[in-house]
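Case study 2.
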Amino acid sequence: MKQSTMHHHLSPPDSSGLKAAPPKRLQSLGTLAITLLILGAIAVPPALAQDEEASIGFVDSLISPIVDLLATILFFNIGGENGFPFIVLWLFVAAIFFTIRMEFINLRAFKHAIDVVRGRYDNPHDEGEVSHFQALATAVSGTVGLGNIAGVAVAIQLGGPGAMFWLTMAGFCGMVSKFVECTLGVKYRRVMEDGTVLGGPMYYLTGGLSQQGKRPLGQGLAVLFCILCLGGSLGGANMFQSNQAYAAISGIVPGFPAWLFGLILAALSAFVIIGGIRRIGAVAEKLVPAMALIYVLACLFVLVVNAGQVPAAIGTIISEAFSPTAVGGGIVGVMVQGIRRSSFSNEAGVGSAAIAHSAARTDEPIREGIVALLEPFIDTIVICNMTAIAIVLTGAYQNPDLSGVQMTASAFESVIGWFPVVLSIAVCLFAFSTIISWSYYGIQAWAYLFGERSTLLFKIIYVACTFLGTLASLPLIIDFSDLLLLGMAFPNLLGCYLLSNEVAADLKDYWQRLTSGQMLTYEQMLTTESATESVRN
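Prediction:
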């Protein structure tokens, strides 16, 4: 019963076709969440608000034991002290396997994916809540973000310029991981009587594996995924975002209190989160293209100004990938950092995007999977590489005092003196869009485990973590984020492995219909129907 009512707490606008909560109820929920935030901020001891180091130490002491426990479970090394962490190897091997198993669908279907996103195949009468473009924008808003700005800088800081090569390779293969999980997300989603869509790894893990006679395994993996998804949504998708957003703002407004910034960001997030998936989709649809365009244009400007140094920067990235000079752990250390940051940036294999894409209006699961494979391309292959080249050619990575978003800001500042201000605004928009998109993923996981009636409690916890993220230190936040986010890949990819044969069979059928001309665009369908009507009359 709890699953059939999961979405009712989202309270989207009336136009969505879902049951909308009365305005008074929305206002009361929003007021409650923000009142709790304010009370929490007041409750922070004055010493913490005034002494930045004390506040960081206090929050770190809360998170550190959790990080140590999770590191022991998920990040044990395979192949000795300098080997691969288990979960990183799990992600990379899966991405390569799916790329080969699906016969490089990331290359074969690229043009078709763009046609689908442009709306050529959109049928407004198909089941689902959002368009292909909105589903893509919602999912991209959860991936195009600080992974591109701060995450790339962290990869280069910890793994040297060569980490970008492996980040790119992981992104290329990750396109197919994303294709597989999002195809399954649509195939096994549940559409309720009122049009509500329930979808994500927890549904294809239970539904898909049940059909193979593995119901207990499917149920166990679904519960494990939801637990890790809750942690991932609170960590990398929330606390890391608010932490780096504050780092960007404090760079242009020195002395701005972390607790005050956290309170403002948390309050803004609370209002949007209560609006549900359609409000999230509507905000992401406008916010993501705008912020991505601003950032890409800035990257292009830096590259054009330094055009003569671009080939040398690319050469440095490639050479350092195979013979690193300044990184411990040799080539394995560089690969690990690249793959970790790639997974954190595009979330391929993590399962989060399958939740957003399951709400797409379509009767073709493969088609939505093909749309989804554009995400790692946009996020990792294009935007992350532009950031990396800018950092390498300006030499910002050679300054040991810079880390995260500050390194990226320094790279831009060397070319455009005033640009750190614009970058700080972009960082806040990126962070905000990721926070609101991932709240939806967390809400879905919470509702699957505990039912929809208690989701307000999760929203309050989520918004409180937005606030706490501004008060924790970056290294601990990075470890906490990686562990929880990458941990989601274990149950998700195990299910995808077991269900990969049916995805391959569905893909073969879809591709045959597409290439033979049986699959019509929406305009062609209308033309055919009109011609049929004319003949009848």
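The first strand starts at residue 77 and ends at 78.
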